[in-house]
Known about the structure:
The complex is a heterotrimer. Chain A is of the alpha/beta class. In chain A, 34% of the residues lie in helices and 25% in strands. Chain A has a domain at 19-102 and 216-268: P-loop containing nucleotide triphosphate hydrolases (Rossmann fold), CATH 3.40.50.300. In chain A, the strands form 2 sheets. A 6-stranded mixed β-sheet of chain A has the order 6-7-8-3-9-10, sandwiched between helices. Chain A has a 4-stranded antiparallel β-sheet with strand order 2-1-4-5, with helices on one face. In chain A, strand 9 (231-236) and strand 10 form a beta hairpin. By secondary structure, chain B is mainly α. Chain B has one domain (86-308): MetI-like fold (Orthogonal Bundle). Chain B has a two-stranded antiparallel ribbon. In chain B, a hairpin with a 7-residue loop joins strand 1 (77-78) and strand 2. The longest helix of chain B is centred in the first third of the chain and has 42 residues, at 24-65. Chain C is mainly α. Chain C starts with 5 loop residues before the first helix and ends with a helix. In chain C, a hairpin with a 4-residue loop joins strand 1 (57-58) and strand 2. Chains in contact: A-B, A-C, B-C.
Amino acid sequence: MVALSRQAAPTPTGAPAAENKLEVRDLTITYGKTPALSNVNLEVRANEIFGIIGPANSGKTSFLRVLNRMDTFTTGMKFSGTVYYEGKNLRSWRNLYALRRKIGVVFPLPVGLPLSVYDNVAMAPRLYGTQKKSELDELVERHLRRAALWDEVKDRLHALGSLLSGGQQQRLTIARALSQEPDLLLLDEFSIAVDPVTTMKIEDVLKELRQEMTIVLVTNLTQQARRLADRTAFFLSGQWVEVGDTEALFTGNVKDERTRSYLEGRFG
Amino acid sequence: MLTKLPFRRSTTGDQHRAHDALDWAWLTDKAVGVLVFVGGISAIIFILSVFTFITRQGIGFITDTMEVGEFLTSPAWRPTSDENPTYGAFALIVGTASVTGLAVLLAVPFSLGAAIFIAEFAKGRVRETLKILIEFLAAIPSVVWGFIGLSIMNPLIIELFDVPVGLNLLNAGIILGLMSAPIMTSIAEDALKAVPDSYREAAEAMGATRWQITWKVVLPAGRKGLLAAILLGVGRGFGETMAVLMASGHSINIPDSPFDSVRALTASIAAELGETAVGSDHYQALFTLGILLFIVTFVINLTADLVVNGIKKR
Amino acid sequence: MFESTELNRRNARVEKSMGFLYLVMTLILITPVLLILGLLIYKGAPHLTWEFLSTDPKSGMTAGGIFPALVGTIALVLGALIASVPIGVAAAIYLSEYAPDNWFTRIINLAIINLAGVPSIVHALHGLGAFVLFFKMGTSILAASLTLAIATLPVVIVSTRESLAAVPMAFREACWNMGATRWQTIRKVVLPNSVSGILTGVILEVSRTAGETAPIMFTGAAFFLPFLPESIFDQTMALSLHLFVISTQVPGVPEHVPYTVALTLIGIVLIMNALSIGFRMYLRGKKKW
């Protein structure tokens, strides 16, 4: 599939340009009657790290959940507006499983599946059709290395993933997301359960991954966004405040004073 | 330490058609969905089947032979009379009601007491042991209970109360009480356990004793579940067959005292159906008793569910 | 505040006596049953020999053993399991993994509750009307097994659903986020982690089914049939009905015989229960998360 045409598809009128990985138009998210996020308009470009910052309850996580259509299994979650993924409206996907294969997700609470470490990482490749032991071995090692976990678990690949420590489980979760070889990687405050040294290692990996995929990084650490993100959006209490080049935002070049206050640490 | 992946191009719009294909995994998932849905609606199919088939067998009696007034108010259940068979189910209804009533009367206080003890007072190993014992009790088959009524309770009652027959309302009530108590206990215990610990902690912080917490906080908060436990116990007693058949004496009677023998609806069906010809009035009348049992237990179970879950959907 | 005031002492007294009262109530529930079990063992155990289990009843059931009844019960239980476990597990998977939260699902749940509440004798009537007569199976092991299967289906559904629900939601979400379909998620993560719980429920169903009497009375169990059934279209004896018959219908049965049959029946049921409880404790001991 990857070997198909190099050119951008002819864009139908009104549809977004192909160099945008994601285009979000008038996105509003509600849980039952409670609004979580309203009226977001932004683009995520291909092969960039897109940061989303903001205090708790600002709707960052809900935003991520829409991007791979987790609303379909979240009770009460509904969204309106349109999200284009590589030019295609997310609502027009018939096979959402296939969509999710292209999108890796890492959430703040690590989830080691109750399978062996090996099977945790080999699960996605197996699902997508890789069955040969030698290939799987190689994939497992590569993804565990990239998630900075290999050295710690290489001697117990067949221990239960769900019984690793919290930090190890989080890196296992990252390895699993990478094992999907996704086009788009969604990270939600991944560093909460990870120690600072490992966090730095993973940040280095993310910088390299930018060549291969687009990354949306939700973080409560503004400095992490500054270190990693090309562009950054600021969400505040369910409102989308602004989007801009990360460096510009952090050097005070903001359109909205609330952004400046947040970045200077006056609240949140 | 960090290995690079070979560079991969980002995909373009054209490829979505391939990505979005309805592949085998998708198809299998849909197929399994349909398959388990059939399993899911099986319960509906079976409950409808039960109702349809017992109605089908009993409907002839309801439309042709039965007089509703006689059926519900006359105690004369003489289906085998040659000249003038009569089908008064009143004595059977009273029999079932009195046995169930006595059983519930005996079982409710002890079941609730045991549930409170297990949920609020017992700890650790004692609690585990009691729960396992209760589970064992709930597993004893009803025919064994009937046998116990017949061969152990019967002589015991004759001895203790100096009565000629020990197979009577009291015997069946005690047996049925012992049978439904474990069920009521475990449902009631679940209901008490479902009361959030934060309630207990809040009360404890105000200096309440465990007894006060139980009485003032836990019981009121768990009252719906407790009521459901009692209702389900009633439903169980109402539908019980073998034990009642064997322990109640099985004679048609409007009881004056607990030492009178009675006959229950369920027991009548079990005892008489084998001797009727398929399609005869008597046969159909027994199915009509079955319809009555079905409807009453249906209402009891529905009520219990509404008590717990409310009218709105969960 | 921490002084032993009159009120505090009174509270402590009330506390003690109430706890004691509940303990007594619990014991009143349990003790008689334990005494009765003791009596069953006392009267039945000396006669519960291999010979009793493995020979046919003789002299109009007043002598000999219970072999055909034992085999019949096993056949009925197996038949009921074969019919009810696949349906029950499918139903539980639907309710736990696929069913949307709507009125229809609520109706299914109500149907399960009501099916569990249908009196066993009404199940017998249904089995007679549907399987024996309408589907022309005659009084047979097949008809009786199917009747038992419907009567115990709710046990399978409820216990399976509980074991499926015990697998944390986060595991499912993690799989879905990898692009696994619902079925792939069930097969790779949910079922492997609940299969032992499901098995526990099945064992429990065995114990329930083995003791059922009313549902098989008019659908396939025979009062007296001192030889083994040859096919599922034959009638069979069954332990539970045998106990009923020899203790109420047959004169001249020596006192120890029904005690021994009752002990056998209760033995089967309690062993099954002990198995399922033991299994559950073992599972609790080796949690995977």
